[in-house]
Amino acid sequence: MRRWGFHLVAGCDEVGRGCLAGPVMAGAVILDPGRHIPGLFDSKMVTPLERERLYAIITRRAVAWAVASAPPSEIDRVNIHRASLEAMRQAIGLLVPLPDMVVVDAFHVPGLLMAQLGVPKGDRKVSAVAAASIIAKVTRDREMLRQHDVDPRYGYDRHKGYATAEHLAAVAAYGYSPLHRRSFRPASLFDTIE
């Protein structure tokens, strides 16, 4: 992108899209081209320990970084796709300085006042998108650990809100909590409850 004349290029990605509980979280990062960070890759393909290590480096070395989220109530109100796009738009808008170009993992984010490019599997191809993925994932995982401390019945410390067998069994036993997305009704949940 810099070869096309863009100087402040941000990567943007979201995490938590497919969860049964918790927010969807979006990260946006402008990397410093003079401060290379080795090991940046899709947050889903990096161990939790490595994500934490990379998070610390990204937040120290990036030109700018930001995170925004959409809570379960907003996801239920507008749908997960629109909530994800809004969280990404907000994360990008929080960057200081603002980028002149944004690379997004697969999507086009409406309402941006700068150039953007959607790259399929961008979190595996573009370092800034991978960095945004890691920032968002670590932030969301930390939030789910806080939620586990508030209500340990659901096991958020282990599955982070994804629809694992353990999580579905907890929902069957205790019902939905305020952290659960009411619009997410996996068929396996009904099999567990009935």
Percentage of residues in DSSP E strands: 15-25%
What's the total number of strands?
Answer: 5
CATH class: Alpha Beta
**Overall structural domain count:** 1
Tell me which CATH architecture applies here. 2-Layer Sandwich
The mean pLDDT is 92
Structural class: alpha/beta
**How many DSSP H or I helices?**
8
Encode the helix/strand succession as letters. Answer: EEHEHHEEHHHHH
Largest sheet, spatial ordering of strands? 3-2-1-4-5
How far apart are the termini? 53 Å
Helix content: 40-55%
In the CATH hierarchy, the third-tier topology is known as Nucleotidyltransferase, domain 5
Walk me through the structure:
With 194 residues, the protein is α/β, with parallel strands linked by helices. It has a single domain, classed as Ribonuclease H-like superfamily/Ribonuclease H (Nucleotidyltransferase, domain 5, 2-Layer Sandwich). Helix content is 43%, strand content 16%. It has helices at residues 48-61, 72-78, 80-93, 122-125, 127-150, 156-159, 165-174, 187-193; strands at residues 9-15, 24-30, 64-70, 101-105, 115-119. Helix 1 (48-61) packs across helix 5 (127-150), helix 2 (72-78) crosses helix 3 (80-93) and helix 7 crosses helix 8 (187-193). It is globular. The model is unreliable at 190-194 (pLDDT under 50).
Quick tags:
194 residues, alpha/beta, Nucleotidyltransferase, domain 5, 5-stranded mixed beta sheet, 8 helices, globular, disordered C terminus
